[in-house]
Write a structure and sequence with these properties.
Helix content is 26%, strand content 37%. It contains seven helices and 13 strands. The mean pLDDT is 91. The chain is of the alpha/beta class.
Amino acid sequence: MAHSSYTLLRPSAAFSLAAERVGDAYARVRASLIGDALFVRDADLYDVTVDELDRRMRQPPARLDSETAWDWLDGPDQYRWAALRVLAEAYPPAGGQELAGCTVVPENTVHVIAADVHVAGDLVLEEQAMLFVLGRLRVAGALVGRAGYSVVAGREIGCADGATAGEVLALDGIRCPGTFYFGHNDCSARAASYDGGVLIDFERDNAFGRVDVRQRVTDWDFLAAARALGLPDDEDDLLEAYTEKLLGEQGGA
């Protein structure tokens, strides 16, 4: 990486869960959650069921870490989006957390923060990294998910620009006044709304409610995407090239 890194939390960090507290929160939001269009959308296609969601919410792990999170939240992204809703209800954000410089969520780690979070620089999720912010997440710079799988989730997510091959989950909405490129087609983003400048997500089936943007590239057209991203027409890997552009990584790591 061309600039210095700041690791968000220790890799061994885990978030403690109380089964009764999670169950009570789920009981409060269950009716609205299972009727929400964002949960229902594509549920049949990916075998997402209310019975399975009920089972998971009855049996949360005692602590969320890189092993237990996958046991609890594996499968279609609806389950992670639903868990975000339940956790935000069970552990309402208290205060705020300020992070300076470039913040990196290390690979194969899971972090849950029950607070509003402001990142003064870029936020980078390495492969297999998961970040759940139970309040609002504000990123002054770029929000980047490295190639491979990652998850960033929050009640509301804001960033200047973005690039990811992973999931971005927001209960209320995503705000990006610049350009956000959702690349590759292995994952989906899910948010009640998306507001911003340029949205490029033609490779994916993102589940957004209201969308209000200046430009959206939805046709299967890599040339149009390259031009919208300010990249050469013959660029082979748009996601890698745009990530490097956002993070100033051209010319070396």
